[in-house]
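On clarity, I found the account of how folds are encoded harder to follow than it need be. For illustration, here is how one protein appears when written out as sequence plus structure tokens.
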Amino acid sequence: MLDGLPRQAVTILTTEKGTSWTHFGFQSSWRKAVARAGLSDLHFHDLRGSAVSRLAEAGCTEAEIASITGHALQEVGKMLDRYLKRSEKLAEAAILKLETRTIRDQNL
């Protein structure tokens, strides 16, 4: 799908002209979009934080996540320590592993 989009930048998310965003240009557009959506208490840097959590839930290593998001490896670890404890998806996966192991052990 991305290959079919007109763009001149190497980044995935581009301006309407198909070029890379500047930091300030994206931040300005972000604020406008948040205001139009009627959202509050949502911050510009929440995008990368959400990506860190979702990549971890998908099974990516901290090094892989850091290479995608541009965070320092240590920062990725701190973010995961803070936010993944609330991940319903990871909790469900952990319970499933426990149940599977319990059933397997009972059958031995």
Remarks:
- Helices lie at 23-36, 46-57, 62-69, 73-83, 88-107.
- The radius of gyration is 19 Å.
- Residues 1-42 form one domain.
